[in-house]
Amino acid sequence: MGKPRNVAVFIYEQVDALDVTGPYDVFAVSSNWGKDFYVYTVGERESPVHTVSGLAICPKYSFDNCPGPDILVVPGGLGARKEMNNEAITAWVQKMTASAEHVLSVCTGALLLAKADVLDGLQITTNRRAIDLLREVAPTSAKMVKDVRYVDNGQIILSAGVTAGMDAALHIVRRLLGSERAHNSASMLEYHWRESDFSGLVSKDSLQKDEKLLIRKAGLADLEAMQQLYREAARWIHSSTGFFQWPEAAFTKEYLTSFVEEQEVFAAFLKEELVGCFSIQWQYEEIWGDQFHDNAGYVHRLAVSRKYKGQGFGSRILAWAEHYIRYRGKAWLRLDCMADNPALNRYYLSQGMTFRGRFDSQGWSANLYERKIKREEEDLSHE
Q1: Strand, helix or coil at 307?
Q2: CATH homologous superfamily for 5-200?
Q3: What angle separates helix 164-177 from helix 17-29, to the nearest 10 degrees?
Q4: Each residue of 85-123: b (16+ CB within 10 Å) or e?
């Protein structure tokens, strides 16, 4: 069993009670009795704060002694309008964001993220009554999204007001631990999860065109399905080419566990069925040699279920990956393909990929491809 993720819920004077307790309870209920999440409150100091409705809450930790959060929740409330000018708070939020896996703002908690200078180039949203205020303090590069429960930028997720924070928190649970865990948690809370009412890295219209294809971060709960998918792909590579470029026996639970824990791995689902899997890497890879540059995301270990051959899922996954890479501030999508598989190479060329060279290693070879990401802004806000 791995170490549970630390979930820090920040509290301050005049915070909204449900902005705090809603996401807090989502992560606590989803934690599998503390095995997957360690949830705690943190304040600027270890002294009680009072919510807008007068509830007193004593933070478990202060800035000085709190564990480093893997997930940081920044709630809203009337006090956010004051605390967004508190440099100690915004500096702490900025520092925690730099190392956190995910950051979730609820309601006017977005004001604190804006003043912490972490929203450059992102989709943003907040309580509909605070849209104009957020627009005033957010960077001009941020894109305001109205009439959604939450927006997902990858690391940073922002929600609308109050109960929308629970929707966004359940979305994070789904990304990390799977859809079943998120739905079970919503059921235990007797909460109607508005899971589809969001703006993510692809638009609602695209999701509908993709038959509700859901792409999210892979978690340990997905390992069995991932193992079946990759072993199926390995068998297909061998049967179609005679090569063992992906040895079936290599996809052990141990290998896939380290794959999920050490890389950004994404899983694509169609009605709860895993239909594709891939990772996106950003660091130097020997395979690219002198051609490496850090203005790209490298799509790696891309596999699509043979059950859905010819139905366009590979193209949809590449389009999603391109959106994600663009929102991470990169300009190129890169991948490699087994050099001695003509059909697969023709496919990537048909997807607008440009051949950049060949890498030869002992027993296997790969062709290198990349394509420039289009810079035109897509209409994600439906405004």
Answers
A1: helix
A2: Class I glutamine amidotransferase (GATase) domain (3.40.50.880)
A3: 20
A4: ebeebbebbeebbeebebbbbbbbbbbbbbbbebbeebb
Cβ pair 162, 108 in contact under 8 A:
no
Q: Could you tell me the residue ranges of all domains in the chain?
A: 5-200, 214-372
From CA 253, how far away is CA 269, in angstroms rounded?
20
If we measure between CA atoms, which residue out of 246, 229, 227 comes closest to residue 237? 246
Considering the candidates 58, 66, 107, 337, report the single residue annotated as catalytic: 107
CB-CB neighbours of 341 under 10 Å? 17
What CATH code is assigned to 214-372? 3.40.630.30
Residue 297 neighbours by CB under 8 Å, 6+ apart = 280, 281, 282, 321, 324, 325, 328, 330, 332, 333, 334
Number of CB atoms found within 10 A of residue 45's CB: 11
Cβ neighbours of residue 209 closer than 8 Å, sequence gap 6 or more: none
Q: What are phi and psi of 104, to 5 degrees?
A: -120, 120
Q: What share of the chain is helix, strand, coil (3-state, %, to 5)?
A: 40, 25, 40
**Cβ neighbours, 10 Å, residue 235:** 13
What's the rounded Cα separation, in Å, for the pair 263 and 339? 24
How far is residue 246's CA from residue 276's CA, in Å, rounded to a whole number?
16
Element (H, E) at 254: helix 253-262
Quote the pTM value. 0.57
Q: 54: Cβ–Cβ under 8 A, 6 or more apart, which residues?
A: none
107 is an active site residue: yes
pLDDT in tens, 44-84: 999 999 999 999 999 999 999 999 999 999 999 999 999 99
Per-residue pLDDT at 207 exceeds 60: no
